[in-house]
Design brief:
With 237 residues, the chain is an alpha/beta fold. The protein has a single domain, classed as Rossmann fold (3-Layer(aba) Sandwich), CATH 3.40.50. 21% of the residues lie in helices and 18% in strands. Keywords: Calcium, Metal-binding, Transferase.
Length: 237
């Protein structure tokens, strides 16, 4: 079981203190754009949402099959209709499990923004943690089929993968994976993710962060390959 919560707010809520006690993974999509719903006048500051900024939550960004490409071609960060949110928390410190990956991004690909626009302290929680396709889903609404886009699509996809992994672990006599963030950032797990190196989250006509090699504040460590992930999770105690 995995819990996917497609909601967010710029204000901390009392229930945040209980997240660390969850037995199952809690997945949350970032806001669709760094400036979407920004309470700051004129949208001059990036707007990191909660709960995706919480270090005990797995943040899920969105990717797409680029126009003119096929599913066999490399994905890009979602730039159709919506953008994959991402950035750095204004409240939570960078957790140890992502310190090497996020520090590498900040060192090798420093964002061209000032500290007045985002938390550039170098010690803030970065998000998302990983991504999945967030474009061109067909759903039924009021008796009709429509296409939808969003991190609210990609987050449940990751949740379903974790559920399949948990099913396999239970069948092998093991327990559920629990909180996955500490392991997905390890070197051993990197080969099980498709690194996203194109696109960005520049929504609303403003600049944003860009996808790069390795972790980035658009698509995290990349999109999971379930076939490669499953044996790695089965190896864990």
């Amino acid at each position: 079981m995995a819990v996917s919560a497609s909601t967010g707010t710029v204000r901390l809520r009392p229930f945040s203190l209980s997240l660390a006690a969850l037995t199952y993974p809690l997945l949350s999509p970032p806001a669709l754009s760094s400036f979407t719903g920004n309470p700051v006048e004129n949208g001059t500051q990036f707007n990191p949402d909660f709960p995706v900024t919480c270090p005990f939550v797995t943040g899920v960004g969105a990717t797409q099959v680029n126009p003119g490409s096929t599913i066999d071609d490399p994905e890009g960060a979602c730039e159709q209709v919506i953008f994959s949110g991402g950035g750095f928390s204004n409240f939570f410190a960078m957790p140890d499990y992502q310190a090497a990956a996020v520090t590498s991004f900040l060192t090798n690909h420093p964002p061209p923004f000032s500290g007045e626009q985002f938390n550039n302290s170098g010690v803030a929680r970065g998000f998302p943690d990983l991504s999945a396709n967030g474009a061109n889903y067909v759903v039924a609404v009021a008796g009709e089929f429509v296409r939808v886009f969003g991190t609210s699509c990609s987050s449940p996809v990751v949740g379903s993968m974790i559920t399949l992994i948990n099913d396999a672990r239970l069948a092998a006599g093991k327990g559920p994976v629990g909180f996955i963030n500490p392991v997905i950032y390890t070197d051993k797990f990197q080969a099980a993710f498709h690194d996203i190196t194109t696109g960005g989250n520049q929504g609303c006509g403003t600049p944003g962060f860009t996808s790069t090699e390795g972790w980035d504040p658009v698509t995290g460590v990349g999109t999971p390959n379930l076939t490669a992930l499953l044996p790695l999770f089965l190896e864990l105690p």
